[in-house]
Please model this.
Amino acid sequence: MKPSVSVESASALSASALIDAKINELGDWRGKTLAKAREIIHKADPEIVEEVKWRGVPVFSHGGIVCTGETYKAAVKLTFAKGAALDDPSGLFNSSLEGNVRRAIDIQEGEKINEKALKDLVRAAVALNLKAKSKPKASAPKPAAKPSKRS
Model:
């Protein structure tokens, strides 16, 4: 009898396998950099869920998207979905600075990742996601009661 696997854990396994394959396929500094960033993200929050969206982009989520890990010829880009709302005292954000919502970190070949600062950003992003999820939805005001027609 085969052990049962939930749809969520099966998709997480396949997403993790796809991310592993992407890292191996890159086979250069970008693969190593993405692997290191992934490791740091999981150290920051062991409950991070890995997904693959938008034609193979690794996505790291907990209570919503925390960040994506895109690879380009000249950079590995970690885009934080709600980065504009996060404090970045270490100045890691160096890309997508003009937007109102996202912020990104472009990591070039040979650059070292500031592990402590990245962990802090990941933890702050998770906290923001969970805070947003715990807020009760504003309910629509109830219509005023109609006066009764008693005479």
Observations:
- The first helix runs from residue 7 to 26.
